[in-house]
Amino acid sequence: KQVVQDTGPRRLSPLQRAMSAGVWFRKCLRLHDNAALVAAAESGDPVVPFFVLDPWFDRSCIGVNRFQFLLESLRDLDGQLREAYGSRLLVLQGRPDDVLQGLFEGTGPVHLKSLLYERDSEPYARQRDAGVEALARKCNVATRSFSGHTILDLDKVLATPGFKPPISMAGIQALLKTSGPVPPALAAPRKLPPLAIEGFEVPDITELYGEEDRPTGSTMLGGEREALRRLAASCADVAYVCQFEKPKTVSTGQKGKPWEPSTTGLSPYLKFGCISVRTAWHTIAACYEGRQHAQPPQSLHGQLLFREMFYVLGSSVPNWNKAEGNSMCKQIPWGEDKQLLDAWIEGRTGYPFIDALMRQLRTTGWMHHLGRHAVACFLTRGDLWQHWTAGRDVFDKYLLDSDWALNNGNWLWLAGVAPFSAPYFRIYDPCPGAKSSLNAEQSGEFVRHFVPELKAMPDKYIYTPWKAPVQVQQQARCVIGKDYPSPIVDHKVAREQNLAKFKAALERRPEGAAALPEKFGAGQKKDPGPMQTLYASSKKGADVPAKGAKGDNTPGHASTATKGGKSEGKGIGRFFKLAGATADEATTETGASSDVQPSTQRKRRWGPGSGKGPTSSGGGLSCPVQIDLSD
Fold first, then answer.
1. pLDDT at position 219, please?
2. pLDDT beyond 80 at 159
3. What is the predicted pLDDT for the residue at 630?
4. Which end of the chain offers a freer environment for a tag, N or C, measured as fewer CB atoms within 10 Å?
C-alpha cells in the first residue's frame, strides 16, 4: 500500500501540546449537522480536526476520480475551517491505529485527551473503530461517538425488541415511525479555538497515483459548499421537488451535454457526508409543506428511505456483501469468464448503450440509476451470466458515490437474487427504443459522446449498428467487427438460456429447505411486472388506485394512494411501468450505487424554474439507493 508521509514544516504552540479534543473526520466531511464537532466545540478544550488517509483505501480498490473527489472534499473542509474559525484540518497518513496511538500518547503533532467521531457501519470501519476504542481505553483517552450518517440510529434500531430486517418500503417506514420524527440538523459551531499547526496538508492526487492514473473529467466537484449549492438549486424550484418521481428520469444525460447528469447528483455528497441526510430530508420537507406532492417510493423522500433501508440491511444481515451465508441471496451457479467481464468493464460488448454507460462510468465516475440497472442486468441474468459480485466490485472502484451498504444491496436487487428483487424474468433490452423504460434518448448524442467510433453512424442504427447495411457502415467509417465490436452475445438467445438456468436454480432446492420468498416465484398467481404500478396519477397530482388494483406491500408493487397530501399506504412500488415498455425492457428494481438520490434529470430535463412538467414518455425504475440523492 502506498503511503505518503508528511514532510512539511510544523510549528507546535503550547496550546497544541496541551491535551486537546480530537475530532476525527471520516465520512462526515462537513461543518453543518456534525455532532462530534459541536460537542468538541462545547467542551472548552483545544479542538484538533483531523483526517487519516488510511492505506486500506488505496488505488487498488478506489478509482482516481473518487479519490480526487475525496481530496476536493477535504480541501473544502480545510478551507472552511480556516475561513470561519482560524482553525484547519490536519491530514495524517498511515494505519489509523498507529496514527491514533501517537496522538493518544503525545508523540504525534498533538496530544489528545478525548476523541470524538461519527459512527460508520461498514464492517471494516466497525473493526477499525473497535481497535481504536480499545487503544483509547489503554491510554486513558475518553471517546464519544455519534450517529449522523443515516436518519436512523442503526445501533438503536438493531437493538429494538422484535427487530426484523426491512425488505419493503412499508418495513423501513415502520422503523422510521417507531424512531420518532426526523431530528433537525445541527447548525455548524459558532466558535472553534484557532489551530496554528503547520504541515499535514491535503496532498495532491499526483502524490497518491502515478502518471498513468489521472482524474479524467468528473463534472462533480467535491465538498460541502458544492453539496449545499446543488441541494439549494434543486429545491429552489418547489414544483420540481413536489412533482419529482424517480421513474421518469433520463438515463442518458442532459440534452446537448450528455456528460452532465440529468439528476441532482447529490449521491456522492451523501456518500462522503459532505451533506447531511437530515439536511436533505428537511429541505425537501419544507418544499412539501402545505402542498400536494409525490409520495414514497417515487418521491425524493422515498429515495432517502431506500438509502435507510439498505443501511439497516447492511448492518443487520450477516455476509451482506457475499453470496454465501447471506440470507438475502439466492444461490445461483453464475459463470466465470474473464473475457466477458473485461469486455463489459471496458465498454466493448458491441452493444452501444451498454458500452457508452460503462465508458461513462470509468471516465466520469458517474452513471444514471437506470443505466446502472441496464448494465447490471446485462452482466448477470440478462446476457453474460456473470456473478453479481464481479460487477459490484467494478462499481465499487469507479463510482464516485459507491457506498458499501447501497452498492451491495443494489447488486443483490438487480441480479434478481434477493427477496426484494423484481421477478428474475424481467430483462432489459440493451438496445432501448423510444418507449423503453430505460428512458434513453434516441438521437444518439449520448452514445456518440462516449463511443466516438459510432459518431457518424445514422440515428436509425445507433443502438444496433450491426443491423446497418455494409455500405452504411463504410460511409460511417465504422465497420462492425473491425472498427467496433460485433455483439458479444446474441441478446435473444442469451436471454432465453439465462432464464432457463435461473429457473432451474430456483427449482433445485435442497430437500427440507424452507419455501422460497414470494418474489422468487413461489405462490405467485400473477406477476404484475417490476415496472407495474398499482396506482395511477390523477390530474390533480394525487395518487389514486389504478383500475382493478389491490394494495400490496411487496417490493414489486406500489400502494401509496394519497388523500389530502398524506400517504394512506405503505407499499414499496419501486418498479413502475408506464405505457409502452415491453417485458424485455422492464427488468430490475431500484438501483443505486449509492444513490438515494433526488434525480436531477427533472431539474436538468425540465429543470427548476422552467415552469414545465416531466416530459418522459416512458416508465422507469425507482432506484432506492442513489437518491439522486444517489444516482
1. 77
2. yes
3. 41
4. N
The most distant pair of C-alpha atoms in the chain lies apart, rounded to whole Å, by: 79
Distance (Å) of CA 426 to CA 55, 332, 617: 41, 17, 20
H helix or E strand, kind and range, residue 175: helix 169-179
Grid-cell match 448477470, residue found: 380
**Residues contacting residue 62 through CB under 8 Å, at least 6 positions apart:** 397
Radius of gyration of the chain (CA): 25
Give the contacts of 455 (CB within 8 A, at least 6 positions apart): 448
pLDDT value of position 543: 30
Choice between 1 and 40, residue whose per-residue pLDDT is larger: 40
Instruction: For Cα atoms 319, 325, 330, give the angle at the middle one, nearest 5 degrees.
Output: 105
pTM: 0.82
Angle at 177 between CA 172 and CA 183, to 5 degrees: 105
125 vs 117: CA distance, rounded Å: 12
What is the mean pLDDT of the segment spanning 186-205?
96
What's the Cα-to-Cα distance from 548 to each of 188, 527, 535, 618, rounded to whole Å?
51, 14, 10, 22
User: What are the tens digits of pLDDT across the range 307-351?
Assistant: 999 999 999 999 999 999 999 999 999 999 999 999 999 999 999
Name the average pLDDT for the chain.
81
384 or 591, higher pLDDT: 384
Pairing of strands 111-118, 19-25: parallel
Q: DSSP string of 114-173?
A: EEEEE---SHHHHHHHHHHHHHHHHTT-EEEEE--SSSS-HHHHHTSTT-----SHHHHH
Which contacts (CB < 8 Å, 24+ apart) does range 120-123 have? Answer: 120/26, 120/27, 120/149, 121/149, 121/150, 121/154, 121/311, 121/314, 121/315, 121/405, 122/314, 122/404, 122/405, 123/321, 123/404
What are the residue ranges of helices labelled H in 200-326?
224-235, 238-243, 267-271, 277-288, 300-316
Helix or strand run (H / E) with residue 621: strand 620-621
- Span 143-152, average pLDDT: 98
Q: Which three cell numbers stand for residue 568?
A: 394512506
3-state SS class at 309: helix
Q: In what order do the strands lie in the sheet with 47-53?
A: 90-93, 47-53, 19-25, 111-118, 142-146
Amino acid at 263: T
